[in-house]
Design brief:
3 strands; 36% helix; alpha+beta
Length: 99
């Protein structure tokens, strides 16, 4: 699991309808199910791709945790170097370690 200071808690996607197609938004919120302390961490407004973009943003912390956890096992799989390097670069990008 990563130790970065992302907004804690599970993420979920919530939709808000507006008067026009381009006024619809999806909010990605983070919090704990047993509280009312949900925080908006992102708002997606692109009408054409907003559902897919919202799901990806909401899943990003889980994807980062999974990639970070599995990376130590990749050399045992004899993964091609470019696959390993791609995973390391993605983690660096997500954690702000990209130069």
């Amino acid at each position: 699991m990563t130790t970065d200071k992302f907004t804690p808690g599970p993420r979920k996607v919530e939709a808000e309808d507006g008067p026009h197609l381009y006024h619809k938004h999806r909010y990605i919120t983070a919090g704990e199910d047993d509280t009312d302390a949900w925080e908006i961490v992102a708002r997606v407004s692109d009408a054409q791709n907003q559902e897919a973009n919202s799901r990806l943003i909401a899943a990003a912390p889980d994807l980062l945790d999974a990639l970070t956890a599995i990376l130590p096992y990749v050399p045992d799989w004899t993964a091609p170097t470019e696959v390993y390097d791609h995973a390391v670069a993605a983690i660096a990008k997500a954690t702000g370690e990209t130069k």
